[in-house]
């Protein structure tokens, strides 16, 4: 295939969808991963104008068998991966004593283990010049009360990203962390509390930041980028 191949996890909504649209506009053949087939169907309708340049694949990033299946079908079709964007994520908030162990397990499984599994199985198809962007959060570097499980998972994403970068540097694979602050997406709908969306950035702003990261010249890498609302914290 002539086009460069990009994968975006959690591409049905919010930041992931905005990144996928930017990649399609930039001419990438884009593999959009969605957790459910139902969300895949509505996503397909929205990007029909890019017909022929994308593939939608149902994938729960926390299930290794599903990750293996995705990567082997990409291996058969395109034989390589140029850009991997690990974006899929979930959030739960609440005091630590009230956090269910299952919620802790799920947040770590999707946000942290999912990123590890995608990288582990994609690396064999990534050649010199390819790039990995992991979506962390401002919660990758700062703790917030009632956000302990989420912060733990996003600190894990940043720690993993920093180690991965050093591990694959000699193979010519670039690794970046993009750490958004509050962004207007559905993720806030399930959270208790009042969240002032006028003080949030748009998913499109985050997506354009990701594109600027992957468009750096070969000799340059943006290791880490914080993109936050100019109005300050919520
Ligand atoms: N919004 C913010 O303020 C903000 C700030 C900093 C960082 N982030 C991070 O940015 C990323 C995207 O967040 P968002 O705000 O765009 O969230 P969102 O609107 O809730 O979208 C989350 C996406 O992740 C997918 N997903 C959830 N669990 C999954 C799983 N097990 N396997 C595969 N896909 C899964 C969802 O798929 P379905 O549609 O199938 O459920 C959806 O496409 C997350 O990693 C989040 O932590 C968000």
Structure description:
The protein has helices at residues 14-25, 37-46, 64-77, 101-122, 148-168, 203-214; strands at 5-8, 29-34, 54-58, 83-86, 131-135, 174-180, 224-227. It is of the alpha/beta class. The protein has a single domain (5-227), classed as Rossmann fold (3-Layer(aba) Sandwich). Strands 3-2-1-4-5-6-7 form a 7-stranded parallel sheet, with helices on both faces. Helix 4 (101-122) links the parallel strand 4 (83-86) and strand 5. The model has no long low-confidence stretch (mean pLDDT 96). The structure holds NADP nicotinamide-adenine-dinucleotide phosphate.
Briefly, what is this?
The protein has helices at residues 14-25, 37-46, 64-77, 101-122, 148-168, 203-214, and strands spanning 5-8, 29-34, 54-58, 83-86, 131-135, 174-180, 224-227. It is an alpha/beta fold.
Please specify the SSE layout and strand pairing.
Elements: E1 5-8, H1 14-25, E2 29-34, H2 37-46, E3 54-58, H3 64-77, E4 83-86, H4 101-122, E5 131-135, H5 148-168, E6 174-180, H6 203-214, E7 224-227
Parallel strand pairs: 1-2, 1-4, 2-3, 4-5, 5-6, 6-7
Helix pairs in contact: 1-6, 3-4, 4-5
Bound molecules: NADP nicotinamide-adenine-dinucleotide phosphate.
NADP nicotinamide-adenine-dinucleotide phosphate (NAP) is lined by residues 9-10, 12-16, 34-36, 39, 59-62, 87-90, 110, 135, 137, 180, 182-183, 185-187.
- The total number of structural domains is 1
Give me the number of helical elements. 6
Q: Which runs of at least 5 residues are low in confidence (pLDDT < 50)?
A: none
CATH structural class: Alpha Beta
């Amino acid at each position: 295939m002539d086009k460069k191949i990009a994968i975006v996890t959690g591409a049905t909504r919010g930041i992931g969808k905005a990144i996928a649209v930017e990649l399609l506009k930039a001419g990438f053949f884009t593999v959009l991963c969605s957790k459910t087939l139902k969300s895949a169907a509505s996503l397909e309708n929205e990007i029909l104008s890019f017909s022929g340049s994308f593939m939608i694949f149902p994938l729960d990033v926390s299930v290794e068998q599903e990750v293996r299946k995705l990567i082997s079908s990409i291996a058969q079709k395109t034989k390589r991966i140029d850009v991997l964007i690990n974006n899929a994520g979930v959030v739960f908030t609440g005091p630590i004593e009230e956090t269910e162990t299952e919620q802790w397990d799920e947040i770590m499984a999707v946000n942290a283990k999912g990123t590890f599994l995608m990288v582990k199985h994609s690396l064999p198809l990534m050649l010199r010049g390819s790039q990995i962007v992991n979506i962390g959060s401002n919660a990758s570097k700062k703790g917030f009360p009632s956000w302990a499980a989420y912060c733990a998972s996003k600190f894990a994403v940043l720690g993993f990203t920093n180690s991965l970068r050093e591990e694959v540097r000699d193979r010519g694979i670039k690794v970046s962390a993009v750490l958004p602050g509050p962004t207007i997406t559905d993720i806030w709908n399930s959270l208790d509390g009042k969240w002032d969306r006028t003080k949030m950035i748009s998913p499109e702003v985050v997506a354009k930041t990701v594109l600027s990261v992957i468009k750096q010249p070969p000799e340059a890498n943006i290791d880490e980028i914080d993109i936050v609302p100019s109005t300050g914290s919520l």
